[in-house]
Amino acid sequence: MIPILALSIPIVAIWSKHKQKIVEMEIQATAEKAAQYATQNTELEDRVRVLERIVTDKGYDVATQIEALRDARKVDALLEKHEGN
Predict the structure, then answer these.
(1) pTM greater than the 0.70 cutoff
(2) What are the structural domain ranges in the chain?
(3) Integer angstrom CA distances of residue 74 from 6, 79, 85
(4) What is the pLDDT of residue 1?
(5) At 57, phi and psi to the nearest 5?
(6) Residue 60: per-residue pLDDT
(7) Which DSSP category does 17 fall into?
(8) CA–CA gap between residue 14 and residue 10 (Å, rounded)
(9) How far is it, in rounded angstroms, from Cα 50 to Cα 62?
(10) Distance between CA atoms of residues 35 and 15, nearest Å
(11) What distance in Å separates the CA atoms of residue 48 and residue 80, rounded to the nearest whole number?
């Protein structure tokens, strides 16, 4: 019984070190993911700030710009049609 106990001590020590390394690797991976999420979150917050600024800017009229684009397309289509004849 004593030899079995004596042989099991190094096995348990090796197993414990292995488990500790696994836990350390998981902690490192989790920290890296957290850093990536923090970076992505900061980028998204910046983008939202820009969009909020665009939407709340009184000089920025989305509907007018969309209509201007539509009018430009109509003019381009008429010019192409006229040049084709």
Answers:
(1) no
(2) 2-84
(3) 90, 9, 17
(4) 72
(5) -70, 120
(6) 60
(7) H
(8) 6
(9) 15
(10) 30
(11) 40
For residue 55, give both structure tokens: 């939407």
Rounded Cα distance, 82 and 70, in Å: 18
What confidence score (pLDDT) does residue 28 get? 96
Q: Per residue in 33-70, pLDDT tens?
A: 999 999 999 999 999 998 888 777 766 676 777 777 77
Of the chain, the end-to-end C-alpha distance in Å amounts to 104
Q: 54 with 60: CB under 8 angstroms?
A: yes
Residue 15 CB burial class (10 angstroms; 0-12, 13-18, ≥19): exposed
Residue type, 80: E
Q: State the pLDDT confidence band at 5, using cuts at 50, 70 and 90.
A: confident
